[in-house]
Amino acid sequence: MLKTFPKGGVHPAENKMAATAEIQSLPLPKQVVIPLAQHIGAPAQAVVKRGDVVKTGTLIAKAGGFVSANIHSSVSGKVKKIDNVLDSSGYKKPSVIIDVDGDEWEENIDRDPAVIKDLSKTPEEIKQKIMDGGIVGLGGATFPTHVKLSVPEGKTIDHIVINAVECEPYLTADHRVMLEKAHEIMIGTSLIMKATAVNKAIIGIENNKPDAIELLSKIAKEYQGIEIVALKVQYPQGGEKQLIKAVLDREVPSGGLPLDVGCVVQNVGTAIAVYEAVQKNKPLIERVVTVTGKSVKKPINLMVRIGTSANELIEAAGGLPEDTGKVVNGGPMMGKAVSDTDVPVTKGTSGILIFNQKESKRTKVYNCIRCARCTFVCPQGLEAFNLKNIAESNDWEKLENEHVMDCIECGSCSYTCPAGVPLLDYIRLGKSTVSQIIRSRKN
Fold this sequence. Notes:
alpha/beta; Rossmann fold; 4-stranded antiparallel β-sheet
């Protein structure tokens, strides 16, 4: 029997139209816009100025603190300016704008595609390479990887869990990298294991990717301590807490972290980025992005330089369909609609999803009938209808006491609500306010 998490979950239509589309490299743009805040934590601080000439891989912004990440130029050319530019969040953020001139890389980056399996570096050297390379989680959260791998004193971990679930409908970037960069994933996982002094790793893959399960299971035999676990298809299995429960049957406590149950979770794309940073001296300057949708002419998976406009990715997929109603940054469940498609790809951009007009329309909202479906499907066991009502009444203390901060914003509640109530919208607003209150208490 396939493993999964026991509490809640939904089964949206998969719509993995781009699953068989091999990764293609998008041609270089004429200009890139590289935001300085594309990770959780403090924004990076620019170390270049207008007129500076940079190469592909040149450091252009240093981490603004321990919980932050370096940012590198994804192209070679000249810095046009540093300015506030609209990103996918809908807000203007400080960004380095570079006019592209050729593609000259920093000399220390190894561009040979040959795979290097070298595990001789010390844990400290591995973590330093990861920090230098600006590696962050590529599953969407963009938490700086060197921070995750720095296990606090008093905590011990015994397992690395690699998230290869890709449970969001439509998205296929992780599926493709598993098929096309399997050895890099294994070496990256081995490096993460060594960096944390762990000798066991589990790569969890949902059973709708049998080709990836078969390939990685075969290759894993060449690497010590790595196990491939097939999982039942169930959203949101890619959530850290849900994945840990599925593969290890460990329950992360309310308000807790994977560290509290002896785990560190990393995305499968992050494992590749770790491999490239440590073995190739390659910083995080590009990533795979899925461009898809039911009306898209050519659903596609693209290797894209950070800072490239989403418009260029959409053109590579056949252009914006005439019946487009909404463009979403990410997947349909946790992604967010963009107000303008001329926004840059960042380290956290996993997909660009184009909904047609019919799909984009919100259903009519009726009164809640207390059916409790939102509670049954919540993977955290929360009462979404109750959280929505409390948030609407601005009772922030009660909202915190009802564990709103445990919400992983998966959208299962809104997806299943027969009354069409946008439960997650209210919960997100309330959670944001409670988060600010908690931070103010700590200052």
